[in-house]
Amino acid sequence: MRLPNSAGGKQKARAAKNLALRKRLWPDIESDALWNRQERVGFSTIPRAMPLLMSIMDDMSKGKPVGASYLEMWCRSYDEGYVILKHDDMAFNAGFSGERAVRTWKERLRILCDLGFIDLKDGPSGPASYALIYNPYQVVERHHKQGTPGLTEAGYNSMVHRMSEIGATDLDRDNAAEETEAELETA
């Protein structure tokens, strides 16, 4: 999705305002002491609502939290939207340890797949070698329409509110149609 030209100006103004406030609050801080995705390697872009989305996933997973597993996959994915699964490493990074770590990790993958947040494919590492990561806003929207147990009205409404705060248009059907038309025109 491309931002309109006016959005770029608003972002620059917001960034300048935020930088000025940071300098007043922390006048002695050096920029290299902070994480800046534009100056560092090894970053991932995530939805600003990711903590809320992870909480919603955990609520829907029937007492078996999946949010950390989802975030681990997200942080390993690129713009193509999928990740090659390295079960031992990823299980550990998601917070699972001991002899049941990989089994627990794979159980969480299955839950995420059953909930529709990811799709799994077999490959050289056996079952679940690859994971496709779907747009989490759209998945939660689908669950809301279906009345999935565990997804509370408060959780859903909080997501919609947060999307409004940050300008996320992932559920805006008119916007999606306009973007598709614009892409076809430039092709």
How many individual helices? 8
Q: Estimate the mean pLDDT confidence.
A: 89
CATH architecture of the largest domain: Orthogonal Bundle
Count of separate structural domains? 2
Largest sheet features: 3 strands, antiparallel
Q: Roughly how many Å apart are the termini?
A: 15 Å
- Sketch the topology as an H/E string, one letter per element: HHHEHHEEHHH
Fraction in helix: 55-70%
Query: Tell me, what is the CATH class of the largest domain?
Result: Mainly Alpha
Oligomeric organization of the protein chains: single chain
Q: What structural category arises from helix and sheet content?
A: mainly alpha
Please count the beta strands (DSSP E, at least 2 residues each). Answer: 3
Q: Give the DSSP E fraction (strand runs of 2 or more residues).
A: 5-15%
**Which residues form runs of ≥5 with pLDDT under 50?**
none
Descriptors:
3 strands, globular, 8 helices, mainly alpha, 55% helix, Arc Repressor Mutant, subunit A, 187 residues, 3-stranded antiparallel β-sheet
Describe this structure in words.
The protein is mainly alpha-helical. The protein starts with a helix and ends with a helix. It has a three-stranded antiparallel beta sheet, covered by helices on one side. The relative contact order is 0.11. The protein has two domains: 1-43, no CATH class; 50-166, Arc Repressor Mutant, subunit A (Orthogonal Bundle). The protein is globular. It is built from eight helices and three strands. A hairpin with a 2-residue loop joins strand 2 and strand 3 (126-133).
